[in-house]
Amino acid sequence: MTRPLSLDDLWRSVAPGTEAYDPSARRALPSGVQRFLNHAVAPGARLPEAVRLSMTGTIRLKGWHPFEAEQVIVRGRGMIWAAKVRMKGLTIRGSDRLLEGRGSMRWALFDLIPLLRAEGPDITRSARGRLRAESIWLPSLLADPAVTWTQEGENRLRAEVPVDGEPGDLHLRTDEAGRVCEVRLPRWGNPGGGDFREEPFGGLMEAEATFQGLTIPTRLRVGWHPGTPRFDAEGEFFRAELRQVAFR
Q1: What tens digit of pLDDT does each residue of 13-37 get?
Q2: Quick one: 164 exposed, middle or buried, by C-beta within 10 A (0-12, 13-18, 19+)?
Q3: Is the pLDDT of residue 110 over 70?
Q4: Distance separating alpha carbons of residues 244 and 248, to the nearest angstrom
Q5: Taken in order 51, 237, 98, 96, is the CA torsion positive or negative?
Q6: pLDDT over 70 at 114, yes or no
Q7: Are the beta carbons of 132 and 166 closer than 8 angstroms?
Q8: Is 80 exceeded by the pLDDT of residue 109?
Q9: CA nearest 49: which of 78, 69, 26, 92?
Q10: How far apart are CA 121 and CA 97, in angstroms?
Q11: What single DSSP character describes residue 16?
Q12: How far apart are CA 137 and CA 69, in angstroms?
C-alpha cells in the first residue's frame, strides 16, 4: 500500500521560485488591485512556489477547542493542512488536503482510532474553495497572470482564481494601504448538515506581518455567512494565528 504524501514530502518536492516581482508589469490592472499586490509583494521580491505555515488557535467542534497545525500550499499542486486538536483531554490528529485535483479528510483519535474519512466530488469542490480563500497566504498565486481582476469599489476587489482549472471568485476588502481586511467567496459545503450546496464563506484578517518580502495576514477569524449575524452566532468555526512562515 502506497504511503500518503506527507506535509514534509510536499514541501521538499518544490523547487524555490526564481521570478522577481515587477510592479510595472501590473500597471494595466485596476488601481486598487495594484495597491493590494504592491502591498503584498515588495518590488524585486522573489515570487515563491510554496509557503509553509505553522499556526495555533481554536476550532469549533461542538464547542471551541485548541489546536496546533502546519500547512503547506504549493502553486499548481494543492495543499496539506495537518493538525492536532485537544478535546476534553483527548488528542485528535488529522489532515485536510487537496492534491492533484483530489480532496480528502482524515481524522483519528491518538493516530489509531478513525473518526472521520471523507473524499469524493463534494469534498474536492469544497477544498478548492478553501484553497482559493487561502491564496492570500501565497501572494504569488494572486499575482499570476491567470487571475482575472475586477475593482468593485474603492477598496473592494474581485479576483477570478482558477484552482485545478476550475474558475471561482474571491472577494477582497482592503484598506487604503492595500492591506487585506476581509475575504469572502461562495464555497461548496454543508454547514449545519444536510446536502452540500454553495454558501457564503470568508473571514476577517486582524493582523499581518512581512516574511521574505511578502506581507500576509497572520491572525484571522473564519467561517460561514461572513458579514451577517449568523457568522457570530453559528458560522464562525476557526480562529488562528500564524507562528512561523517560510516561502520557497
Answers
A1: 999 999 999 999 999 999 999 999 9
A2: middle
A3: no
A4: 14
A5: positive
A6: no
A7: no
A8: no
A9: 78
A10: 13
A11: P
A12: 15
10 Å Cβ neighbour count for 117? 11
Give one DSSP letter per residue of 24-79, joined into a string. Answer: GGGTTS-HHHHHHHHHHB-TT-B--SEEEEEEEEEEESSSEEEEEEEEEEETTTEE
- CA-based radius of gyration for the chain: 18
Q: What global pTM score does this model have? A: 0.95
The DSSP call for residue 166 is B
Q: Which residue shows C-alpha cell 488557535?
A: 57
> Is pLDDT of 64 > 70?
yes
Scored b (16 or more CB within 10 A) or e, 58-80 reads: bbeeeeebebebbbbbbbebbbb
The grid coordinates listed for 70 are: 502546519
